Amino acid sequence: MNRFRKLLNIVLGAVFFLLLSAHAFASSGQAEGGIVAITSLLVIQLSVILFAAWVGNLAFARMKLPAVLGEIVAGVVIGPYFLGSFGFPGFEHGLFPPSGDFPVSIELYSLATIASIILLFFVGLETDIQTFLRFSFAGSIVGVFGVIFSFIAGDILGVMLAQNLMGQNYSFTHPFCLYLGVLSTATSVGITARILSEKRKMNSPEGVTILAAAVIDDVLGIIILAIILGMVKSGHIGWKEVSLISLKAFGIWLGFTLVGLKYSLKLSAVLNKIKDQNTIAILSLGLALLLAGIFEHFGLAMIIGAYVMGLSLSKTDLAFIVQEKLEMLQKFLVPIFFCVMGMLVNLKEMASLQIISFGMLYVVMATLGKIIGCSIPALFLNFNLRGALRIGVGMVPRGEVALIIAGIGLSSGIIDDKVFSIVMIMTFVTTLITPLVLDKMLDSKKPVLRKEQEIKDEQKTIKYEMPSVETAELLLAKVVTAFENEGFFVHRMGREERLFKIRKESVFIVMRYTTQRMEFDCSEMDAPFIHTLFYEVIAELEHAMQTLQTLTDKSSIGKKIFDTQKIIANINSDRKKKFQIISSKALNVDLQGRSKEEILAELVELLIESKQLDASQKEEVVKDLLKRELMMSTGMQNGIALPHAKTIAVDHVVAAVGISKEGVDFASLDKIPSKIFVLTLASKEHPHAYLQSMSEISRFLSKEENRAKMIACTTRIQLFDVLSFHM
Length: 727
Fold this sequence. Notes:
Helix content is 63%, strand content 9%.
């Protein structure tokens, strides 16, 4: 409910500022036109797109669906064919009015085009050339047949669409039909790769085959796209012209790719002399934009040039620098691209039964094209039916590449609104259903090969078990620093994920981290280096711990918690509310325990009685508390003890308060028996501000009169009144 309210507040705030900007836009008198008016409208449009994309992304992610679909849907909703065409003061023709014969303005589509260039640049950067080469044979066979079958399926559909939807009798070699074919070849490897990663199948036989085949898919699809665009621009579709255009397109692509891969290390060395990583990333992007422009000049798509530059840099140290430093730019522009693609969907056209029927037919043909085309050759590559079907399904999702190709086709006039809507249905459905199906298929532990092969694997996985969450987090920070000190580039794959790619020249290491273990995937040759680095990190931490033991003022630090001279007495009501974490049922004015263990058990029992803790978790929580006590006693001074711990047994901060009239030895700082006990538990996963909660309790207990009132209480109600009034 709280999250919903926050989201509602954000949406209402956005609407308020939109209306405010509309008033300013109307009163400025700039609605008539001019570059300032165009720029002002673009700025407001971008603001709305970013908020809409964020809401769509969040909504679909909550439903465990690909977030990119949420951004596309957001674009459909705010686009010119739905809400974007509704006029209101300041925007008489709507916020996203159609621009002539094209759904969006030239300025907005140009920005989306730049976003697509950056997107394909990143796709190239993230391509694992080593994995591709290592499994190139099986991947190439699967990829080639997948492209052939899916291309034929799309081409056939193009002929059918031309006859039934457009009233045209196009041949199989007509650019329109060929374009539908190339749209069928694309594979969104990012979606499949995420599922494989979650299921720990990235290095499985089917996993590496899918990844290698996806690279072939992208390369062949881009080459075919270049050929078709050349045919459209030349206006000739004879076999002789097609052959010449094919040779030209393939030659330009292959030439730039080979030169890029050969001289990428030298280019990396030159850029690394700049030292400033931000500048290196910006200049690398500049090279991608330059090559994109060159490819467009030669009659090829700009995205092809961007992909080639990314592919060239993927084997260098620069790949990680560029991904890390340009991450915010990518996160800013890419949602704009997907939103704009959604805006191009004509809802009126898509709502027709004919479009929906052809769209679903395209889904079936495109899906079967990939499954049949990729599964059949896999059966001849030692995969059984289970493994072959996994590969086929893994190649089904279309995503960013298909949308980019569709956008190029729409802007070039090769396809119209109706066909674009059909392509969007195919892209949406295949992207939606694949994660659900593949996730279930990967649950099976049964073999995927007809005959298990003993392959001498040069790769090695090193695992280190973590003793605790705190130790794991500390080790992670030290290990990352150690790699960086050795000259490695460490790139974290997303903020939420705990996957790190580590590279230095030809050395490539993947580190996976959880609070239970740390794993390294590396070559056999680099394994000794990993062990040495980890050993040195442990030695450094051990020395640091020994140094901490010599800290002489630990007691004085603890006493300063209750230093009343520096406590701010006036705390506003919001802060009071924030730290009211003590339930009226989690109080006891007469604890019977005579030892630390007994007191802790009684306090935990209070949490169970107050429904803040499940009874089955009692033993685990007591262990966590005693483990914390072994680190350093939570017995403070003036008869106060503040036992606390982080545990998996709770998901938010909970507390209990108990009074021992006679006092219990809690190894306090002043050696005085403790009479007031305030137990606090916080979630290991979401600790929130539990230390702040404890500091508020400490502030209250620092006053002698408050302590006296608590000890004097004879009932739970009296104790709760004292705490409520003063806290």
